[in-house]
Amino acid sequence: MAPPVKYNSRYNTTMRLSYTTMMSILVGLGVTVGGFVDPALTFLNNPAINAGASGIIGTLAGLGAVGIFNSRLAKSSSTVDQAYQEALIWPHPHQTSGYLVLQPHHRKTGWRLRDAITWRKPPKILGAAATEDQAQALCRAVTQEDGVVIDPSRLSDAQSQAFDKAYAKYTQDPSVYDHNTQKQLTGLWRVTAVDPTTPEILAYRTRYTAHGRQIEFYPSPPQTTSTVTTLKADLAHRNLFAPADQTIPESLPEGTPLVQAPDLHTAWDVQRLQTQATIPWTLLNVANPNQMPYWTAGCAVPTANGTGLTWHFFPEPPRTMTDPQRLSQDLRRYSVPDQTPAEWPVAVTPPSEALAQWNAQARPTPALSPAAPTLAVSLRHPSL
């Protein structure tokens, strides 16, 4: 996408001043000199009127020069303005994983001072990412476009030296660039309710992590609060407001009620069960014996009377998945962001109680399951 013209950039401001000053001087000087020399332009040979006319005509000429410059000669970016320049995704050359997101510096070249990339100094570091998807999300957040993945083996000597210098600068203080990445990939806090019919509210925001787009809640599910004032005070006290939250007139704009947004409610339920479950989320093989395995995820919470366990499943029965790795990734996408727990446990032979409850929900009969499934809100995922 072509960068928009920034009329107040350093280059445009300097050149516009030069054009208008030069035009005003030339026209004003011509009128002044002509008015004293040519009888037809003497304005009754009155120096005061002649000087005033000179100023007026010079000003009009200057304004005309501004219009011509803005329409035909203004540059889309100054030497240092790179807000819309292409970003490069560079796999870490000295690490087994991870990416640096870089943006080369530009300079003016040629008689019309066009933009050109310079490799005389290291590219600007936009951030660091754990995965290519996260790196692309960072590129779109900063430049509004996808980034270009670089093949390190095909860089010129000048490019390799510039990139190596950027990497050396990154290693001096990685936390600064990692923080910048998180800042760019974190959305605004929004206030909403789990159910619009209740007064209890909470805040949520989206974050693009190494596990993809995840949803963060405050307070942690299943907790809620009663007023927006309390919510704002708690977020401010814990320093959880991002810079983007400070740019809007009032923090915590209104969000979508959870019951109206399947992704939000699924994340709420998964995270709620993470904190409440006696048996944490576990990958369960619910296939019949001697059949190809098919998988679901389940966790168990104590029953209301405390005499047993109620199992909850993801995805909602009877849906299952043949690939446990894919199931693990989808489940993690709804879990708490920035947490890296051990891989979900795997039960090739699930507990008999879990299998019985899954079968009851997957193939309900009037005798076994006259009521709705265990979860009040479906844990359906569109991709499953």
Concise synopsis of the structure shown:
This protein has 384 residues and is α+β, with helices and mostly antiparallel strands. It contains ten helices and 13 strands. The strands form four sheets. It has a four-stranded mixed β-sheet with strand order 5-2-1-6, sandwiched between helices. The chain has a four-stranded mixed β-sheet with strand order 12-11-10-13. Strands 7-8-9 form a three-stranded antiparallel β-sheet, with helices on both faces.
Task: Describe the 3D structure.
This protein is an alpha+beta fold and 384 residues long. The chain has ten helices and 13 strands. It is elongated, with a radius of gyration of 32 Å. Residues 1-5, 77-82 and 367-384 have low confidence and may be disordered.
Structural class: alpha+beta
Gyration radius, in Å = 32 Å
What distance lies between the first and last C-alpha atoms, to the nearest angstrom?
35 Å
Identify the overall geometry: elongated
- The spatial strand order of the largest sheet comes to 5-2-1-6
Range of helix content: 25-40%
Mean pLDDT: 79
Low-confidence stretches: 1-5, 77-82, 367-384
Main pleated sheet: 4 strands, mixed
Order of helices and strands: HHEEEEEHEHHEEEHHHEEEHEH
H/I helix tally: 10
Q: How much strand?
A: 15-25%
Number of DSSP strands? 13
